[in-house]
Specification:
29% of the residues lie in helices and 19% in strands. The chain is of the alpha+beta class. A hairpin with a 3-residue loop joins β8 (211-217) and β9. α9 (308-317) runs antiparallel to α12 (362-371), α12 packs across α13 and α16 runs antiparallel to α17 (484-501).
Amino acid sequence: MRGATRTTWAAGALVLALAATACGGGSDSGGGADIVSSSWGDPQNPLEPANTNEVQGGKVLDMLFRGLKRYDPKTGAAENMVAEKIETTDNQNFTVTLKDGWTFSNGEPVTAQSFVDAWNYAADVGNKQNNATFFDNIVGYADVHPAKGEPTAKTMSGLVVKDAKTFTVALKEKFSTWPDTLGYQAFSPLPRAFFTDHSGWLAKPVGNGPYTVQSYSKGSAMQLRAWDGYPGPDKAQNGGVDLKVYTDNNTAYTDLIAGNLDLVDDVPASQLKNVGNDLGDRYINQPALIIQTLTFPMYDPAWGKPGMEKVRQGISRAINREEITQQIFQNTRSPAKDWTSSALGSQGGYKDVCGELCTYDPAAAKALIEAGGGLPGGKMTLTSNVDTGSHRVWMDAVCNSINNALGQGPVCTVNPIGTFADFRNQQTAFKLTGPFRSGWQGDYPLIQNFLEPLYYTGASSNYGKFSNARFDQLVDAANRETDNAKAVATFQQAEQILAAQMPAIPLWYQNGSAGYAERLSAVELNQFSVPVYDRIKVG
């Protein structure tokens, strides 16, 4: 999602009857026998498609919206959903034609204007949407979202509505895989109600997906119900989903085992030794488009000044990935060898680009750190939220590995932040002064999505503020390339710059994991490690 992105890549949820944020209730959630209750984490931002670039909010949008494309849960292939066809003769100018019969759950038709208005809203600098840069390749983006000064237009000239079912998109340069990005939720259509009653829409979002929002209490719970009038091919196979906010995924797991929760999509590391006996074949563990990294605040001179790349590389070599993934994560993680995801496969761009820089070697680690001038102030602090993902456990392990490798005492310490939302607020405000967790869950299964949003200058999820002109040039060149193999090779050249500069340390690739109650069936995770809620059956 974005990751979550955006990410998300690198991949939680609620019941209104419960005001407590860490406890569960009955598995029917007070909403009926066919309602699925599932764990969740409190989203950072309002649930606007172009403002949500983290996993927890993304889970809701995946139920509420359908865009031009949708990614097949098993293969990741971008398949037409609302789009009838997307045509181009030059990979720069596209004509989009919509299918008949699509509406929003409030009865409004889904038209070409629904997409164009949503995309213009997303790009408008005044709306401060996190995913605005997803639209920066459209002609006229700079007019509505200037780097400096006031905008000179309210809409992008590259978007033109031809009729109710047709609109055209002009890009600033060739982007051969652009249609395949359109399954990402930032490109969702919006109803007129979003604009005419924005506060009302935020309180109870309206989309065109298989579910509608029945109620939403931020920080506590959301109730979604199957929309009987949904016109799409993927109608909900259950009556709805109750999402419960948990601040500790161990509590969520305990509720699952006790029969008070139906679905947990983030099995805590502390329970991995028990999950096989507890759940048997109701435990899911599969590769996903997720990577965990440690990002450096390049905006802080202490970490971003010339020469510090050696220190950053040295820290990478001080982390024993093999030991941590085996002892803590027990086959649910694998050591990272690049900045993408092993789930992409070699044809998709996965390759051992990091090499020895991602290999544990205490002597090499110490030599690199000394050559770079040493740790800033002789110490470092790792920061992450600790409410989901067993983050405190692995952060302690990473610090222990660094401290043992360097042999200088406890120079690495952990700064735990209680909630995901609080962590994200500090991260997005660029307030962190040391390395911080930056898990990425892919927004779509393309190597581009693991590099451009995170490391391109000014990109929406570039929270370390890394900037390298050559990296940007290579990404631009790869996007223009019409031959997929050549595009992938060019992206991998850009990755080599990441190895040389190490703005973020690849840690490990993350499997998607989930556990579910006996009363559920047809439970599966998509390639992004998100439950395919509409396919779950109850009873």
